Amino acid sequence: MSWHRGTDVVVVGAGFAGAVVAERLATAGLTVRVLEKRDHLAGMAHDAVDASGIRVQTYGPHYFRTSAQHVVDYLSRFTAWHPVEYRAAAWAEGRLWPFPISLETFEALAGKEATSHEFERWLSAERVPIASPTTSEELVLSTVGRRLYELFYAGYTSKQWARPASELPASLAGRIPVRTTRDRRYLVEPFQAVPVDGYTRLFERLLDHPRITVELGRAFRLDDRRAGAHLVYTGPLDALYDYRLGALPWRSVRWERETVYRAPAQAEMQVNYPNDHAYTRVLEPRWLMPSPPAGVSTLVREYPVDWAPGLEPYYALPTLEARAHYARYRALAEADSELTVLGRLGRYTNYNMDQVTAQALEVAAALVARLCPR
Ligand SMILES: Cc1cc2nc3c(=O)[nH]c(=O)nc-3n(C[C@H](O)[C@H](O)[C@H](O)COP(=O)(O)OP(=O)(O)OC[C@H]3O[C@@H](n4cnc5c(N)ncnc54)[C@H](O)[C@@H]3O)c2cc1C
To answer: Which of 166, 244, 340, 374 is least enclosed, having the fewest CB within 10 Å?
Structure first.
């Protein structure tokens, strides 16, 4: 007997991609079976309250933010929100700097109060004229100049990706935020908030549907597949195809946690260490809680490491070679009309949570149109 008898769709993965697709399909009348290899829901967004009463995000800080109102409207059916204005700082040259770069960063550099106009003049003298930056280094140099590149970007990038910014594409750096005002926000999207009861609770509510069955601790392999149910896959494509075209390059992370009996324990919820230590940043999750316990905090240090079998794939490598390698796996998947691939792993792209949610809503709408009898 097939293990998915009576199932219309098998969804592999219970992160944002899998859970949102499962909920949409079940609500449209399909019977859905979700298989998750971990022993918990929520994928990378999983969180849990630790022994000190601090809700810690298991796989690193997850700052939900978006400009997409339809994503907020959809997720708000499953959670209320705790608004947070995310803030960060950077530790370099023995002191703390306002980060991302703003007028306050410039004042710290200049050692005196300054105006936006003075900062703009200084920036235009500093910027390295590069007409069409192709590398990450060129992009940053052409945006902020060498002094700020070396202070905040060069070291961080090479720790994060284990290669210098001169070997990474400009697309990696994206838009370098430089504010000539006193705007100290870490992120600029209009909606910035975390689920009030945590991400895990949001996923419990998403998947609480009579037509959804969830199996935790169940690693799906292609051999498990039987005819009859459409497959929605949100894991890595190289693993799905048993690495037959070679393993895709990923970066992974090692986390170190420390309980401290002072709170808050650092100046901002996130402090970056571009040039000191082997870790890239130190997070203090209590800043994201509506009512954190008094007098205690948990600090989390992020150490980027190369991916190896047995480690979690965290970040897709933003190089042209890696994308070309992925495209060969993608071609295999596209030849299979009963397979739908999405999410950060399946698409080998470092999406944010709102982007994955939007993608899942789109994919689910297309599947409903195809699979649901009218
Ligand atoms: C360190 C870090 C920090 C981040 N910070 C932010 C942030 O601040 N803000 C933001 O918006 N986004 C952030 N993100 C991105 C965010 O984590 C993703 O957008 C989101 O989790 C993607 O959801 P997903 O479902 O695509 O992938 P995942 O959450 O990875 O879910 C995929 C699931 O599939 C399961 N799976 C894989 N293979 C199999 C298999 N063969 N069988 C069964 N199950 C399988 C996995 O165990 C996993 O649970 C961050 C990501 C990382 C790595």
So the answer is: 374
